[in-house]
Write a structure and sequence with these properties.
This protein is mainly α and 69 residues long. Helix content is 72%, strand content 0%. It is globular.
Length: 69
């Protein structure tokens, strides 16, 4: 498995836990808003910063369609 995919799964699971939901529901919402590829491709940034920064970015993407930063 590619590092990017491993991290993407880790991020989904942890973000879902943070939001008190399930990873499959987070993925469904990302898919519905055509944001899955964007989040997946943010690996170079997300994996080098505090995971909470990724959570804030995903929150912003899901609510506004735009990254937090």
């Amino acid at each position: 498995m590619a590092q990017e995919m491993g991290f993407f799964i880790y991020l989904l699971e942890n973000y879902a836990s943070y939001k008190r939901t399930r990873a499959d529901l987070v993925l469904r919402e990302l898919d519905e808003k055509n944001l899955t590829d964007f989040v997946y491709n943010m690996y170079p940034l997300y994996h080098t910063e505090a995971i909470e920064n990724a959570y804030k970015d995903i929150d912003s993407l899901l609510s506004t369609g735009k990254p937090a930063w």
